[in-house]
User: Which sequence fits this backbone?
């Protein structure tokens, strides 16, 4: 009986050992699964938790979690950066067409630069609402992945608020322009109205991206019509240009050209509404350390004939140099012409105060 009993004990011990080993392997496997979570669906596909009709999303990957977060934010922000670039190009094209038609609008490059500054600021404000929803690390490579999200409703509300603000400002400026009896104040208010609507164009482009319908909020004003109305107002202002007899050669022509380029009428005699007195004083500093220097000031003053009063004045510093004396002088005059072309219209309209 002892012989029969012993084999039975051995046969029972075999499954116990096997069971223990199996259990240990299972626990190890379970532990391994717990420490290596499955790859989220948003890494290589749609983010199911954040449907596209409700969210804009961006993805980023890098060696560190912080860098992955930054790249995810940047990936989402590209959506608005593209809108900024497209709008700047649209504005530039629009004003190039205006220039070719009547030579009165500001240089297209200036408008594009102004637009870029405004739109970049706007894009920065929008992307402030971007959130990092999830971060995941690949257990095999160690690469960090991040998901950035921006709720469409939140971004849409911000954009619509800005659009409403600009529309209210446009309405106010147009009412002021119509009501004013002062032609410069009419022009100043009309310019502000146009600027507000040009800025609105950018918000509308971004809103079309955020709005699931793609419609955004259409404006009741047309920027081309506002620009044409402003040009008509400018044509009503007759400006006589006066410079000193001993002004540098070419200065009087540069001032007159800038006045005409700004859209005002060049006038002489009894039909003059305003006199623009322009002075340029350049000092030849001679040769200094191998460079010829020119330094001076340019000043313009606008005087209203009917009221016999000065509407405003402005001064600019001029500084130029070159290794050739004649070239230094030419560079100074080129700087004068560039300032007049770029800033005279804004300066004269800025004198639109009672």
Assistant:
């Amino acid at each position: 009986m002892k012989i029969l009993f012993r084999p039975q004990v051995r046969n029972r011990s075999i499954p116990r050992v096997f069971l223990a080993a199996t259990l240990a392997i299972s626990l190890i496997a379970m532990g391994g699964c717990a420490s290596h979570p499955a790859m989220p669906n948003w890494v290589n596909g749609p983010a199911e938790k954040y449907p596209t009709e409700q969210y804009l999303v961006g993805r980023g990957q890098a060696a560190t979690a912080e860098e992955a977060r930054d790249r995810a934010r940047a990936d989402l922000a590209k959506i608005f950066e593209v809108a900024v670039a497209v709008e700047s190009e649209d504005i530039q094209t629009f004003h190039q067409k205006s220039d070719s038609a009547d030579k009165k609008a500001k240089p297209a490059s200036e408008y594009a630069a102004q637009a870029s500054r405004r739109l970049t600021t706007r894009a920065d404000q929008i992307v402030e609402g971007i959130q990092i929803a999830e971060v995941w690390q690949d257990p095999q490579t160690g690469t960090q992945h991040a998901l950035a999200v921006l709720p469409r409703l939140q971004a849409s509300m911000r954009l619509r608020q800005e659009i409403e603000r600009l529309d209210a400002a446009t309405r106010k400026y147009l009412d002021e322009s119509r009501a004013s009896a002062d032609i410069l104040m009419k022009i100043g208010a009309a310019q502000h109205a146009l600027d507000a609507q040009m800025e609105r164009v950018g918000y509308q482009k971004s809103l079309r991206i955020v709005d699931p319908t793609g419609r955004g909020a259409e404006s009741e004003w047309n920027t081309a019509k506002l620009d044409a109305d402003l040009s008509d107002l400018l044509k009503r202002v007759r400006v006589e240009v006066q410079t000193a007899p001993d002004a540098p050669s070419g200065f009087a022509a540069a001032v007159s050209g800038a006045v005409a380029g700004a859209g005002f009428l060049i006038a002489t005699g009894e039909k003059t509404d305003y006199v623009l007195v322009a002075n340029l004083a350049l000092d030849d500093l001679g040769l200094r350390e191998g460079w010829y220097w020119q330094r001076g000031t340019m000043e313009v003053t606008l005087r209203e004939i009917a009221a016999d009063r000065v509407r405003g004045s402005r001064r600019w510093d001029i500084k130029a140099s070159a290794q050739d004396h004649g070239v230094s002088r030419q560079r100074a005059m080129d700087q004068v012409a560039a300032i007049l072309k770029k800033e005279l219209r804004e300066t004269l309209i800025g004198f639109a105060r009672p």
